[in-house]
Amino acid sequence: MTQHGVVVVPEDTVVGVAVGRHFSFPPPRTGDSCKMLAGHIDLSATMIGSWLDSMKASSPRHKLVAPRVAAAGDDMEHDDDWMEKHPSALGEFETLAAAASGKQIVMFLDYDGTLSPIVEDPDSAIMTDEMRDAVRAVAEQFPTAIVSGRGRDKVFNFVRLAELYYAGSHGMDIQGPTAYSNHLHTPNKEEEDQTRSVLCQPASEFLPMIGELHDLLVPKMASIPGAKVENNKFCLSVHFRCVDEKKWGALADQVRSVLRDYPRLRLTQGRKVLEIRPAIKWDKGRALEFLLGALGFADRADVFPIYIGDDRTDEDAFKVLRNRGQGAGILVTRFPKETLASFSLREPAEVKDFLRKLVMYKS
Ligand SMILES: O=P(O)(O)OC[C@H]1O[C@H](O[C@H]2O[C@H](CO)[C@@H](O)[C@H](O)[C@H]2O)[C@H](O)[C@@H](O)[C@@H]1O
């Protein structure tokens, strides 16, 4: 839906799922599911008339109850159905491993809600040492990238693994590893230099505009208790997780009034956050494609990208995998959600278990 020239996309909206009747993996290269979720436009069409409704819709209340933890009286019918279409990547690990067999796995990991649990204060979303060890072990086996809405430096400071690729600002700020990694099985200088030189910043011209908008929004948001503006370099996040629901309308109005003067920026909605970013054709899916190309896998049939993420912005990457007919998208969620991912995991702890299992399988 477009409101005053700004596109708003609900991120956590709980909707009915119509992605085929049964789980099929690998997913079809092109199919109804891709058409249904083609970009943000279809989804916005399901939105209820206003920003406020959209923000409220981003607070799902029905938790996903997987069969293994079902309690008496739980509404199992919907969950069973959803789980059948998006089975646990842990439960179906053998299926996934069989599909990846003989192929080069490339791992893509979202940060918030995937490697660290969602917390109230965005600056406190730390990653546990156990999770860091699991990611480090994966990166020893496969090329591994962090793909986040956060600024690249900020997400690096949380993850602190120099051997990874980082794609910050929703993929608009990409940099290769700054330390050698074992997955480069031929550690010659030329190859290492090539890897380190990977850099892509398709929205660099927007940097002054984003800075200007940040300086305008901070004093406006100061009047709304609990609101927080986060500078993610090529994007901005306006957090409302700690804002009284009665003030959400005022917050949305303030953001909308400021954005009216910036037609080259667009708005999406994440988990209790409004995300402002350049209106260019670049997203986490494009970042995934760029990195596969930089790694030399653009046209290779023997590559198996795995993308794990929890948010609406990760759907762009799941869609790329569907369109390529390659790899596996894994959605981290406790709620049944419309998604193009093939598998699911319920929380970061399960992501950690999955990463560990993958490392053990490959060693
Ligand atoms: O792509 P991601 O790495 O998932 O980044 C998306 C947004 O994540 C962060 O916000 C979310 O996590 C916070 C910490 O748990 C939470 O407080 C907030 O409500 C969530 O929306 C990050 O702070 C944002 O800048 C990112 O856009």
Tally of strands = 14
Overall shape: it is globular
Order of H and E elements? EEHHHHHEHEHEEHEHEEHEEHEHEEH
- Gap from first CA to last CA: 48 Å
**Structural category:** alpha/beta
Name the hetero compounds present.
the ligand O=P(O)(O)OC[C@H]1O[C@H](O[C@H]2O[C@H](CO)[C@@H](O)[C@H](O)[C@H]2O)[C@H](O)[C@@H](O)[C@@H]1O
Across the major sheet, the strand order is: 7-6-5-4-3-12-13-14
Strand count, sense and barrel status of the largest sheet are:
8 strands, mixed
With helices defined by DSSP (H or I, 4 residues minimum), what is the helix count? 13
Q: Regions with pLDDT < 50 over 5+ consecutive residues?
A: 1-21, 30-49, 66-77
User: Overall mean pLDDT score?
Assistant: 83
What would you call the quaternary organization? Answer: single chain
How would you sum up this structure, described in words?
The chain has 363 residues and is an alpha/beta fold. It has an eight-stranded mixed β-sheet, with helices on both faces. The protein has a four-stranded antiparallel β-sheet with strand order 8-9-11-10, with helices on one face. A two-stranded antiparallel sheet has the order 1-2. Helix 12 links the parallel strand 12 and strand 13. The longest helix has 15 residues. It contains 13 helices and 14 strands. It starts with a strand and ends with a helix. It binds the ligand O=P(O)(O)OC[C@H]1O[C@H](O[C@H]2O[C@H](CO)[C@@H](O)[C@H](O)[C@H]2O)[C@H](O)[C@@H](O)[C@@H]1O. The ligand O=P(O)(O)OC[C@H]1O[C@H](O[C@H]2O[C@H](CO)[C@@H](O)[C@H](O)[C@H]2O)[C@H](O)[C@@H](O)[C@@H]1O binds next to strand 9 and strand 11.
